[in-house]
Amino acid sequence: MEEYIRRILTLGRKRLEKFALKGGKPLPERPLIVKLMEEIRGFLGSGENRVILLYGLRGVGKTTMLAQLYLKLIGEVSGERILYASVDEIKMLGYRLKDVFESYEHIIGERLEELREPTIFLLDEVHYDEEWDLALKVAYDRARNLMIVATGSSAIELKLSTDLARRAKRFHITPLTFTEYLLLKGIRVNEEVKKVLKRLLLAGEVEGIEEEIRKTFLTFDPIEVERYLLYGSLPLALSSREPLEETYSIVERIIRWDLAKMGFSQEVLEKAFLLMLMLASGEALNYDRLTSRLGISRPVLAKLLSAFENLEVIFPVRAYGSLGKAIRKTPKYKFLAPVIRTSILNHFGLLEVNEKILGNLLEDVVALYLYIIARELSGSVTYDAEKGGADFILTTPIGRIVLEVGWGKKGKEQVKRTMKKIGAERGIIIHGGDFREKNGVIWLPKEWFLLML
């Protein structure tokens, strides 16, 4: 193990350049990198122990972020004081996360309690070690002058111990929003435009916004909207020649590795691929149809769907109303990264770029945006399960907003019906037409909505 640690200390830069550079040039950075560097510089200035956890769906760019942090720090921190280690690789070699800390102590000749200089551990995919949270807690408690930045799957939050939760600062890494996608392509959207559009959604403020937003549209080619929906919701879209094939490889790893680790049998894992295809097709599905087509029991189906939810592959939009109603009705399952839907359809030869698929992808993105907003505001995202009901209901501490989504132009009937039913004062129609407002209903061009986050 010590030989392995010596090697990654020596070759860290070489190993990580492939994640952070393309053609010798640095890849664009997501906004979170600025916050993370602030945290690290705060540690370097104070020497106070810190633990940061970055968690999210496979493929959202967590490893790239660690690589970018490493390359920024390599000039500020001596080589032996910054270590990048991939825990899945360590596990494959037959070692544990605690062995990394012990071997490092032997190599530098200092125990964690005695670290003389600020030391940074960048630990990738920590969830591959079943006792990762204990290993991080023990290292944190023993050390002085140590900062740990660790990445893991979305499910690590569910297994986070109370002790480590008190010590760690957590950052949730979501799939790319449209403005992040543009930023990674070198196009920056004015922050004020995003704030104005968010106020429009949450508070219905519509005065004086059109001119500034129209100026924003001049900064990018309109085709970028379709590109984003089809394959731009994960960062690999900007570095891969075959983003749909690479994304499907992520789906395979989720099923073959992540679900397998959760204890699913090989037979159920094979059914998981068919389940993903059924959800990607966009057809209306219920539990009975799913269990019949898959040939599995309802408890196994529920466990499988819950696992995909915990890994943030899908997002269940549950029925609005009582808990009993939400349980009885099958949720509408959306893909938080729309490119997962297109990658699955593409793999099975079923991807046709038409209004139907673009509409499904737009609904995925709306679900992603509402998911982010609901987490920020301690709210919830549901749908009206009655016939002719609206696609989404966003409930926040300041009220309820009814939303309907369509690729082309949309009427107000569904929104008004649900607004009346639940007593909402405002409805939003996200569509392919113009911006207008009438009697508490706002018709919002889909491009406007995409610029909100």
TrEMBL record:
<keyword id="KW-0547">Nucleotide-binding</keyword>
<protein>
    <submittedName>
        <fullName>ATP-binding protein</fullName>
    </submittedName>
</protein>
<dbReference type="Pfam" id="PF13635">
    <property type="entry name" value="DUF4143"/>
</dbReference>
<keyword id="KW-0067">ATP-binding</keyword>
<feature type="domain" description="AAA+ ATPase">
    <location>
        <begin position="48"/>
        <end position="177"/>
    </location>
</feature>
<dbReference type="InterPro" id="IPR041682">
    <property type="entry name" value="AAA_14"/>
</dbReference>
<dbReference type="GO" id="GO:0005524">
    <property type="term" value="F:ATP binding"/>
</dbReference>
<dbReference type="InterPro" id="IPR025420">
    <property type="entry name" value="DUF4143"/>
</dbReference>
<dbReference type="Pfam" id="PF13173">
    <property type="entry name" value="AAA_14"/>
</dbReference>
<dbReference type="InterPro" id="IPR027417">
    <property type="entry name" value="P-loop_NTPase"/>
</dbReference>
<dbReference type="InterPro" id="IPR003593">
    <property type="entry name" value="AAA+_ATPase"/>
</dbReference>
